[in-house]
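Before drawing any conclusions, I looked closely at one protein's amino acid sequence and its backbone structure tokens, quoted below without any editing.
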Amino acid sequence: MRSRVLVSVIGVPVILVVVLWAPEWVMAVLLMLLSAIAAWELTTCVGVKKGSPLQSMAMLGAAYAVAAAWVPEKLYPELVAVIVLLVFAFAVWKGGAVKFSHICGALLAIFAIPYAFSAFLRLYAMGFHRAYLLLPLLFSFCSDTGAFFTGRAFGKHKLAPRVSPHKTVEGAVGGLLGNAVGAVIFGLVLNLGLKESLDLPGLVVLGLICSVVAQLGDLSFSLIKREFGIKDYGRIFLEHGGVLDRFDSVIFVAPMLTALLPWLL
């Protein structure tokens, strides 16, 4: 419990400073770091040997993909394809020692994870107030929190017992309600404090959609953990687990917001 409080006390202010006030390059570097760590966690989970060239290529590709999304005119996103070619060249060179699950884990780490994390940079580039960059975190946190407490108090019907035996249908509904409340609070704060003109019903609908997506993200990464028999992806956040344990919902929600938020605003 003490380590959970410690991580929250340190982590929340750091996130607020980086998202709301720090220069864009600081946010980009943090997202590159998170992507590289997530690549390490995912490849380790699927059985890639720690420190192997395949794992190093996955981490390099994940970090570079975020950097290329930040300054594509200078870093050429197409170079990610070169790293992918190196992944397959390494697999062929090892002559069967590299499993297909290893290759898939590396490719997921190089493409999907940095694409999700770089959504924060895409939202920034759209010209929204930086407070909107908190939405992927807010909708993930409110959904997870609402689902946890509602499921703990009222949960009876299992949602996906083969994937995550503790999650319930009642908890899933609580996640929807948590995001509805979070959306209203966020909208009121921005409308009153920043003189925005957010449509609250539309923001609530967005929150409900993101709750469904967040819970799918949570279950998806739980599915991977269960298949490979691990409890947590890492220990970088102590009892909170690794990057993929803490940001599994965000990885799904952030890209969804880049697609839907412009329609709302």
